[in-house]
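Table S2 (continued). Query chain:
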Amino acid sequence: MPILGFFINHITGLKFSFNLIKNSMHKSLRNIRFSIKPQRAEGDRPVELARTMSIHPLTYQELPYDPEYSHYAGRLTTEKLSNATPDEQYWKTKQEIILRHTGEHPYEISGPDALKLLQRIFPRDISKVKKGRCSYQFACYHDGGIITDGLLLRIDDNCYWFAQADGDMLSWYKANSEGLDVEIKEPNVFVSQIQGPKSMELLNHLIDEPIANTWKYFDWVEITMANEKVIISRTGFTNELGWEIYFRPENNIEKLGDLILEEGKKMGMIITATPSFRGRRIEAGLLSAGQDFSNETNPFSVGLGRFVDLEKDNFIGKKALINADKKCRSWGIRVVDGIAKKGRSIKLNNQFIGKVTSSTWSPYQVCGVGIVLLDKSDIGPGTVVDVECTDEKIHKAELCKLPMYDPKGEIVRGIDKKIPTKAEPWSGIKS
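Corresponding output:
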């Protein structure tokens, strides 16, 4: 197995000075992204890196496909694989099944005061999260700006995992745990996602007993797979039917990972990179930390106000959020025959009105899709705008609600079992 060395130190997922200097940046650099490629060690000499970046234990499954990586939550996550185009990955996710080794980084918060710390950190009521359930959570600074988000699992009465997106929550836990009887540690857990309409069929094939019909969206359970006890959750980042598996140090991870991939291939499964998620999560309105929100945005401005409980006892950022503007400024966007360029590229009446935070092409809607953050809240869905696209041309676009379809989340809950056999193109801008 190759040793992963990294030939470049500038990587996506981190905030560098690009946004600060974009206006003065040489035009040849404006559409360039930098990623990390694995390279073999030379001979028998050991390789030492100035900074160690944690890799998923199943990274070897990606190496045959010329992978490129970005830095995410202190770990590496695949940005590109040569085994499928972005459109092929999209349709695999929507019609069949995919495997994705993610960069999400679980931390464990345990001890008698674990709940007290989490109540202090998160704006949602953690006491409502029962053992066997997951909860979407995000943390805010004192001024209401969002640090990052993730998935909280209640493992036991006084033990929780928070599988976080990109951002530094470890320091935040420690900084706010003074005087509390709590332990904060990294359990060395790695996450993989199995997503798509065939994901539950594969799961029932892999485990000793069929999963109970009572296993609901956002439940987690410990099951037996290949004589191994593993934790799986009914969650994902695609808004398609799916589940996630949490590999613990005591697991034979290679045995489990190879079994999942081998049996999944019989159903058409491929191992995928970020593009398999990007289109579906944009269409579903699933926000990406550091892109669609940041420490400069509060939950209300990006449409996450429903996850803030202002009636809850004091939590970090409560005062600022009470006084914050409660109106949403984040919407979806559909683009005619183009992909919106990220950044401050949206105009209305020849005036810049906001920025594109995420964008890609939707093979299903046959148009460019994206998420935008506007300067003001008086502009919303149905507004026709001009947007600069990746082809360096101005295209017409329309702001829309999120999610772009399946507003009740019936696909991810297994209620809507219809698998699309072809595209359903967006009707376009109505004159």
